[in-house]
TrEMBL record:
Keywords: Secreted, Signal. Belongs to the nematode transthyretin-like family. GO terms for cellular component: cell surface; extracellular region. Residues 1-20 form the signal peptide. It is found in: Secreted. It comes from Caenorhabditis briggsae. InterPro entries: Transthyretin-like, Transthyretin-like_sf. The keyword Signal applies. It comes from the Eukaryota. This is Transthyretin-like family protein.
């Protein structure tokens, strides 16, 4: 990375983080829901985290676990100049006996980002079978 691109990156990161502190930008919100299963059984107690992706560190909007039927709904809001870039991380142990967790990341489309503190619509991921392998699935020990 060249010196000029490094400086631009650092300036952008600084502006992004200070704009939220100064109240510059607009409040935006997002919600996501779905159901998790593992080998045909409800994926209950699965850890879920809703983040807003940033160039430096992702910002946690909400954390929850799936209910006894494997269902969940998370929502959150953030003030930012540009459109927020939300993602859902799912941490599970379906068909996995390691010390860490399998992590599935799902990017939420921009058209599910609402203006204001309360989401206008919810992105429904449907029923997700955690026993399947997904593109970009990783192992995560620090979640």
């Amino acid at each position: 990375m060249s010196v000029s691109s490094t400086c631009f990156f650092l300036l952008f990161a600084l502006i992004s983080s200070t704009s939220a502190l100064l109240g510059i930008g607009r409040t935006q919100s997002v919600a996501v829901s779905g159901r998790l299963i593992c080998n045909g059984q409800p994926g209950s107690g699965v850890k879920l985290k809703l983040y807003e992706k940033e160039s430096t560190f992702d910002v946690l909007l909400e954390e929850a676990t799936s209910d006894s039927n494997g269902q969940f709904r998370l929502s959150g809001s953030k003030t930012e100049i540009s459109t927020i870039d939300p993602k859902l991380n799912i941490y599970h142990k379906c068909n996995y006996n390691g010390l860490c967790y399998k992590k599935i990341g799902i990017t939420i489309p921009d058209n599910y980002v609402s203006s204001g503190k309360t989401p206008g619509k919810t992105y429904d991921i449907g029923t997700l079978n955690l026993a399947n392998q997904y593109n970009g699935q990783t192992t995560d020990c620090i979640n």
